[in-house]
## 1
Amino acid sequence: MSTWGECSHQLGMSNRKIRDEQISASSSFDLQSTGPQHARARQESGSGAWCPKNQINSLSKEWLQISFSVDTVITSVETQGRYDDGRGQEYATAFKIQYWRPSLNAWASYKDDFELETIPANNNTEHAVRRTLDRAIIARRIRIVPVSNSTRTVCMRVEFFGCPFDDTLISYDVEQGDLQSGISYHDFSYDGNLADAPHLTGGIGKLYDNEVGKKDVFVNHHKWIGWRRKRTGGVKLSFEFGELRNISGILIHTANEFKKSAKAFSSVSVLFSTNGKDFSDNIIHFNNPEDTESEAPRWIRIPVNNRIAKVAKLRLNFGSGSDWLFVSEVNFESNHTNIELLHDDVVIPDSVSYFSVTEHDDGTSMFAFIIFFFMFLIVAVIILAVIYRKREYRVKASSPSPNAKREILLTIDGNTIKHHVSPSTYQMARDNLQNALIEKMPMSPIISDYAEPDISICSDVTANTPLLYGIDGPYDTQKRSNPLSSMVKYSDYGEVYCTTLPEIARDKLIYVSRIGQGEFGEVDLCQLENRNVAVKRLHGI
């Protein structure tokens, strides 16, 4: 929404916020002493002002140009002649304003409420004169063009007042207003393309200058645009923004004048597009209740259910029995949005609804979006659950449960059992889960083979069950020359270790069951007194 009420700040010529390189001119009498860098109001530098090379008359084309870094709203201009401590005698009696911004194809000329381009300036060299413009202009570059009814030498200093243009409107298109009895209800301040009149394109004028019209529209017509009913299909307007906007409301300033058959619009249709070419079928229709009493100008708000758009087209329909329709200003309640659109028909849900707005939409798009969202959510939950279960399985496979029974690792060697208590166990990279009871202990490496235990019965309970088996049958105790060696050797990830273990009598073991078979041998479960022990038989190498 355009709000320029406090837009009257000094823009930087006098305080040098505008740099010298931002100031240029068509020519200079002397670049060093009277160049454009000296055209700063209320400042004395060089010879006191900018002086063009040629003398000035009503047809002169000399100009002083200031380039702003961003689009800027200019509401007033201050001019001053060349004083130069009393030595100067040159000043401009009048000037014109030309301006440009990136959305314009050419330089535009400012016109006041009487459609005049010439603005009065100074009558002496010392005093500065500030002129407030009848309508603000939006410019990236502005030129001051001095003019005179008589040929004379002119020097100037200037200052500008306004503010940065913080809106994103690029332009609006409109059908030109009409005439009646020699009075113009045109959008004469429109600065876009006039070649296709009465259709105006690519510019900004009365409808977006932050100036609203007064009562008695036929007398105070300067701020109004008026259309006669002779048009078919009502009055069409199109507004284009420089970015996607989240539009929540449109405000139109209008008025009645019953004696001359002028009434506010009876209804409005609004179409939206994200690219300016494809317009949504989701059209807003607004019915404006007829007012048969008040002629006071008023704002009429068209509520919009948060529509995302870059272009908005409006069609205003004439009031019942009226011959004229007047509008002085159109504003949008909107803000920037970061939504990336997959299509142009997007509605952001809003809990507020209005009785006078009807939107034709079967809700299919929103329903499909909800279904898709929940399907995506379900798939994501399933994937996360599978990943979590796999991770939990790996952790359980590699770490013993804190509630597990304490196990003792035993190795048979001849007529005795050697054992030690393992404070912690873990899965060997090359064994099965059932073979995960071997302890990894730091020992001195040696070069030898595994000690081969003698195979026999653990006790009378297992008299007929061999405790350990070889690869091809019952273990042959004659395979090793020293089966009673007290040195037990095993391999852990390719390194060979050995240790001397305490001896345990074999007849104390009671066979229970086969636990499993790993790459290096078989593991059986036995009882030793009141504890469970694992007995592993190592394969011969």
Note: Helices lie at 31-34, 364-398.
## 2
Amino acid sequence: ASPSSTMGRFTVWDYVVFAAMLVISAVIGIYYAFAGGGQKTSKDFLMGGRSMSALPVALSLTASFMSAVTVLGTPAEIYRYGAIFCIFAITYGLVVLCSAEIFLPVFYKLGITSTYEYLELRFNKYLRLCGTVLFIIQTASKPQSHSATLYTGIVIYAPALALNQVTGFDLWGAVVATGVVCTFYCTLGGLKAVVWTDVFQVGIMIAGFSSVIIRAVVVQEGIGRIVNDSYYGGRLNFWDFDPNPLQRHTFWTIVIGGTFTWTSIYGINQSQVQRYIACKSRFHAKMSLYINLLGLWAILACAALCGLALYSIYKDCDPWMAKQVSALDQLMPYLVLDILHDFPGMPGLFVASAYSGTLSTVSSSINALAAVTVEDLIRPYFRSLSEKKLSWISMGMSLFYGGVCIGMAALASLLGALLQAALSIFGMVGGPLLGLFALGILCSFANGIGAFVGLVTGFVISLWVGIGSQIYPPLPERTKPLPLSTAGCNISSENLMTTENPLTTVFNTPTAERPALADNWYSLSYLYFSTLGTLITVVVGIIISLLTGGLKQNTDRKFLLTKEDFLSNFSRSKSETKVEVLDSKRFTVAAEGTDNPAFSHIEMDVASDKNKVNGLHI
């Protein structure tokens, strides 16, 4: 690697490519603000009028899952810890299966806008409030996904910082531009704009990744050399079947822990569920999840190839130890400038792909936050509002949360490390919430009291482990970083960047005073935090429900996962109950934007049953 003085900086063309990406995103927003008569009702705004088809929704689910953290962080993760991360391919398969076969059928047949409405229908309104509040503060498990306000600040700020330190790309210009454009198209175009900009942004992300991979293969004279270097550098460590739950990444922690962690994102997280419920039929909703699985695999493969290419190119001179970059997530931008600096506009394409990740993630959180606020906090308490008013309120909420997100980015720049810690701790909320929904959908005898006690117990224990693991980070033999070398470096550039990464230095307690708990209980793999929360919530919930007479209550079948929900996958021909929209009409797909008459009677149906249902559970 050449010293930083000769490294390329950003040129005019790079800024042009980046600006083009923002402009196209904004134009899509303007188009959906006026197409098909605009956003007449809050349902149009928040759910795209329930007329989306499978492919755009699938790409959109993929896009919002891929934040800039994926573009910058996953290759660095593979460079540092090896390709065992690829085992997540199995995890994603299991997650999509669970989401599509357990959670989706129930949410879809109820026709709800906010997933937390389910909690009120199935248990009571207090649990709905718990769920909603947790979601609004919660930042969904693990910094790779996305959710609410806190996290969004980091999502905007972290990539801006990494790209700024390597490429000299203007930091606050980028933060404000992404924040404003995002808020703009969310506020104008609603869910449809969010979905279609996501489709465009997935294209940009794949293009950015491909340009890096293709160029790296050319530089290394063939993919064989990259694989060979990775093999001899110990980077192809796919099979690690160590059952020890304390090791950070092993086959078991990734498959078991990862499945719970990610199901709490795909199965019940508002920003994901909102999209697949917006499909025009249940068949399209399931298809969107399965197609999205292919997208997740493609992106994982791209990130893995980038990580191995990073290792192959820098195996004798690691830029991180040679102090060329100050944090691991700066490795990708560094590589891009190193190998693509002769191609004008190419580094710009890569930066655009990192920011596409940010945009799609932030836009989905803004839309989801608006939906939850309107459906759970405004609609139930202000019953007199007309649909038109509610659609204006939804737009107002989008604008408000967009502003909050830009504010949070500013906060992230001041309190980076604190926010990071808060994040990991709030990430544990996903587990207990997943347990709460699992109780509702899978156990007919679970009641409100049991569910509440279970949720609180799971939450407290998750927080205990989470905060413990923040104060006493696990020892290196648990995380197993692989060796890096600086033997081949000609360090003439007198240690350019000696800035320490500020995010790691907050909670460093001296190793002398680690309590006994620290090395077994707090060192639990971060992937098991969700698993722990879910299992505790379910077990406690079942026990308490049985003690408080859960068997006596009589729960409406439509809030549970039934045998018919599963079997209806196979019987498409018979026209089914009126809740299902899978009759012969399925093949004549309505044109985009038309309202689907098949939904109106379901919604009326649920509304008329609502009082009876609540009567049973309170």
Note: Residues 1-6, 139-147, 493-509, 573-618 have pLDDT under 50 and may be disordered.
## 3
Amino acid sequence: MTFVYRGLTRKLVIAFDLGTTFSGVSYSVLDPGETPDIRGVTRFPAHEQVNSGSKIPSIIYYNEDGRVKAVGAEAMQQEIIDIAKEEGWEKAECMKSAVDVASDFFRYLFNCTKEYIQESHANGSDLWESVKSDIDFVISHPNGWGGFQQGQLRQALAQAGLIEADEEPGNSRVSFITEGEASLHFALRHGLPPAVSENGEGVIIVDGGGGTIDISTYRKPKLKTNYEEIAVSEYYLSESEHFDDIDHIVSCFDKTTKVWFSDDQQPQYIRFGSTRDNDPTHNIRFGQLKLQGSDVATFFQPSIDCITETVEDICKTCVHPITHVVFVGGFSASEWLYKRLAAAVEPRNLQILRPQVHPNKAVSDGAVSSYLNGIVTARIARYSYGVLRNVEYDPKDSDHINRADSLLYRPSGRKLVPNAFEVMLAKGTKVSDETEVSVKMWKEVGSDQKSKLENVPFTLYCYKAKRNAQPPKFFDQDSHGFSKLCSVQADLSNLPLQPLPKGNGIEGEFYRVKYSVVLLFNSAELKAHIRWEENGVQQRTQASVVFFDDS
């Protein structure tokens, strides 16, 4: 479906794909009444140094004072590497926090985008002047990331001077999208057969990056216009590490052998030096490292196993038929990986597709496409989400009896068992953009404790343990399986209070406030508010969400 921009003024949308090994940018200039084009930034300083299409290496060199000295492809130049050694420059991971590094890289990518637009478009300088004060940003991230990481990315953008530091998430110029969802948008524009969409068949999107693999599954129900996620998305991170002495060889491998390798019976050669570089004991002659094809094949096997096992599991458990696997990302250019995956999925009659249009910019292009015309309106909950709450003591319940020593006593005389886990959203549940989940809450305070209602925290937990296990009834039954997701901060001081007499024969009054915490899991960001009834009319107020580090 063709998208026409209905805004009243021209604006610019920029999508940053900040990857663990390579990063890229796509953008679109939105003119009122026009169908926007999606374009990628394909020129960067020293870009000829890398064979990565429209991406640059995610590398930053800092000097001893923490100043940026070289970024991206520039940092791969031999003269820069020599200077770095002489002057003691360090790469990002040695000196800076994740937010600092992301901030510096966002700033660099933004400046490259500005220069590219000014140089590549007719009247580029005038075009930039017309949009520079009205720019929206779309940030892609791995499937497994959540609110805490999004908060860090938002902080990095503010630190880079691209957005205001006090922008509220609900009114921000920043939006987030998972790499899997962005790749779906790209696949729909480049290579996924239209018949797949119209027949309601499932499609698995495999985004193979330099350091991560994201796997997502979608379908478009018959007679519908939008897509829905039909299986829990997966995310895998490579944990291999490089050492300074072989960084260059690894880089050469990534640019050549990793892409071209297709036969495990033939030796492979990695050219990394000059004819003067020789070490026969390590199979190095004339600047080339010789590797047996069978050894090179083992480098790919963990990724092959990871992808094929996940695809197999999805096909077994998904209630909808899967017919296609779409392979995108820089890793999809590997002939060996493609051949092995195609052979692995053949028994299930799955067709594996590779878009041929710059597959390594699938995420950034897809992120812009989603901004222009988002077509995913239902997603699957990755975990079970809920709250720890106090429940009425039941003297006949063995779990309650075992916790009799920890009972809580309220002014009303109620006896409560603490830390019961109440599920608000179960793992595997389909959540649409309009879906709200809520939990009814109440709080009791003495007549002299009303100030305690001004900032009432509510902690949301997720249960991550045991792939298909149901959450336990109480937190202490599997405390290691729970993770704090976020704290919802609510001001209840304006809610109607009920003065009630204290129980158990105690003189005096206490106040009880009843309310519901409502969560919206739509899109890639979690939102929350408080709901209550006043004079028979439902009222709502926004609640702030503070995420915990769940890494």
Note: The radius of gyration is 27 Å.
